[in-house]
Amino acid sequence: MRDGRSLTSDLVAAVRAYYSACPADLDTVHDPLAAELLPRAMAWPAQLVRRMPPLARAGHLVAGMFSMGLSYLIPLRTRAIDAALAHDVERGTRQLVILGAGLDTRAFRLPLLADCRVFEVDHPNTQDPKRAKVAGHLPACRELRFCAIDFERQGLSQVLEAAGFDRQAPAFWIWEGVTMYLSREALEATANALAELSAPGSAVACTYMPPAVMRRSLTAAGGSLLGVIGEPIIGAIDSAAIADVFAGHGFEPESDRGAEDWAAHYWGPREVPFVRGYERLLVARKTRPGQAGSSSGPG
Fold it and tell me: Which homologous superfamily does the CATH classification assign to the domain defined by 68-286?
């Protein structure tokens, strides 16, 4: 964190801004608002590509090389989550909750949310500057509710219900790029909170980092850097274990896919060899009551 602002949120938005300025074959998630939320220095690569489109692929390849493929993950996972969200909206879900929303712009860039109420949950130090920057923009959703939360003093249900969340109606929960910063206990506690708030038919889209990634170069390089800026990677969990966590709280896993799958689907086979599986996306649906406080052991 820098003065209460999340550097990782800025970096994620900067990558989205860059790909939004790229030609259509790379622009998997069009997010023209992302650049406006960034400090000027972090927005310049997107501005440069917008002025000089032939540089787009070179920048794509260079960033992928220096980040060991990490830069490819961000637009791909965003598109994968958008697709899962679209599926649930088609099913009739009209509540979206974005946990640790950061600089997420789905409420502004997705017309499919026109009949939905969106709740963005985050710490006020991250949320307040964002609110100031989006104040002049009209959301694409029916209603946008900013839910500032201090987890040391407030509960998720307290904050959401005060903002008008209806626990009797299905909801779609987005938990993107967060779990690797959490202990196993915090992961269990959040899954339990989601279970208590979720009506049958609700779904959660949760990204997670497999332990193998922690044992590779990301821990030595990226992990150390994130530790220096105050956002260390401390939580890794394998596919079976995270499925067990959610199953213990009444969520039935529906899909579990990674960056290689997304690259093949959205970018084509030529990009797959350059993509690394830093994160996977679990989509699970609430089908039955969970057991509060259940645990499936260490991951």
Answer: Vaccinia Virus protein VP39 (3.40.50.150)
3 state SS of 223: helix
120: exposed, middle or buried (Cβ count in 10 Å: 0-12, 13-18, 19+): buried
Confidence grade of residue 231 (pLDDT, cut at 50, 70, 90): low
Selection from 150, 126, 142, 138 nearest residue 37 by Cα: 126
Q: Across residues 172-201, what is the average pLDDT? A: 92
In this structure, are residues 203 and 283 in contact, taking their beta carbons and an 8 Å threshold?
A: yes
Q: In the chain, what are the domain boundaries?
A: 1-66, 68-286
Tell me the C-alpha to C-alpha distance, in Å, between residue 11 and each of 38, 130, 263, 265: 9, 14, 20, 24
Count of CB atoms situated within 10 Å of the CB of 65: 11
Whether 199 has a pLDDT exceeding 80, the answer reads: yes
- Measured over the CA atoms of residue 120, residue 125, residue 126 and residue 127, the dihedral's sign is positive
User: Which H or E element spans position 43?
Assistant: helix 40-51
| pTM, two decimal places | 0.89
Q: Are 141 and 117 in contact (CB under 8 A)?
A: yes
Distance CA 39, CA 77 (A): 23
**Helical (H) or strand (E) element with 188:** helix 184-197
| 217, 188 Cβ separation under 8 angstroms | no
Mean pLDDT of the chain: 87
Three-state DSSP state, 65: helix
Contact criterion met (CB below 8 Å) for 235 and 179:
yes
